[in-house]
Amino acid sequence: MNLTASRACLPAFDGHEFLECIRKLVVTDSDWVPHDTSSSLYIRPTMIGMEPTLGVAPADEARLFVLLCPVGPYYSTGFKPVNLLCDPNYVRAWPGGCGYTKMGSNYAPTLWTQKIAEQHGCHQCLWLFGEDHEITEVGAMNLFILLRGADGVHELVTPPLSTGVILPGVTRRSIIELTQTWPDLRVSERKITMGEVMEAQEEGRLLEMFGSGTAAVVSPVGGLHYGGKLHKIATPEDGLAARIMAAMSDIYYGKVASPWAVDVEEWNVDKSQLLEDYKQPEAARS
Question: Does residue 267 register a pLDDT over 70?
């Protein structure tokens, strides 16, 4: 949030003190936390400018607050794959912009392209950028692609954050750190294009694709509408996406011990930790 606040010329705040406020809020409203694995408590920190004037200038006043809301299952009809419209004519973000920030301006314009995707029998857009159709994000989520390399090793690829066009996600980082500990799997944060993906699909080396985000956790991709054609993608029931979903859910609901699962009544957060993901990307500094 501080990264986004800086990009929007809003004041910075002490992140750890804010976390403590959220902790106390959750403890106070603990009766609203659903006691069911099909539901959860959605927490949305928010910051808005409160300048009591009309004009185009940084706000001198701001309000920082948190919204809580009990929510039901993201997949009300089950863990079903989605089809994606891959059209380079529609761009979500670009170098030098604010694609790496959590701003409403990154979401509202995508509602129009969502309607276009639906007209093509798709659920969301796969955002491409540049002449080589570089893959960035899917809908409002980060993206992962499982390939079988020429050496036979399975590689899990996600686009890098260094370009400044991708929003860093805690679910993205969790999946990277989780799968890096799994054997026989190479995890890479690197550039990947539609050309590479289509070549892998034609050669039978494209094994899976899925999005990742706070609400969905993992969303499998079943098809890519690209070049006027729908290309089917495998979605194995016992594949990597399902395995990640199960592993993450076990941590969420306390079935498996993890340093990520912190007791809200007795937590001890390391104030020295700072994820590289939440530092200003190199492309935004230049």
Answer: yes
Strand-pairing partners, residue 232, are 223
Q: Tokens for 39?
A: 């539901």
> Which of 125, 113, 145 lies closest to 82, judged by CA?
125
Distances in Å between the Cα of 14 and the Cα atoms of 17, 21, 100, 271 are 5, 11, 20, 11
How far apart (Å, rounded) are the C-alpha atoms in residues 230 and 227? 8
Radius of gyration, alpha carbons of the chain: 20
Instruction: Using alpha carbons, select from 104, 110, 109, 106 the residue that is nearest to residue 48.
Output: 104
Determine the Cα–Cα distance for residues 164 and 277; give it in Å rounded to an integer: 11
Beta bridge pairs of residue 230:
225
The amino acid that residue 247 corresponds to is A
Q: What is the mean pLDDT of residues 150-168?
A: 94
Do the beta carbons of residue 110 and residue 81 sit within 8 Å? no
- Which percentage of the chain shows pLDDT scores above 70? 96
Residue 260, C-beta contacts closer than 8 angstroms, at least 6 positions apart: 174, 251
Report CA-CA distances (Å) from 256 to 121, 246, 270, 279: 39, 11, 21, 30
Query: Could you report the per-residue pLDDT of 202-245, keeping only the tens digit for each?
Result: 999 999 999 999 888 999 999 999 999 999 999 999 999 999 99
**What pTM did the predictor assign?**
0.92
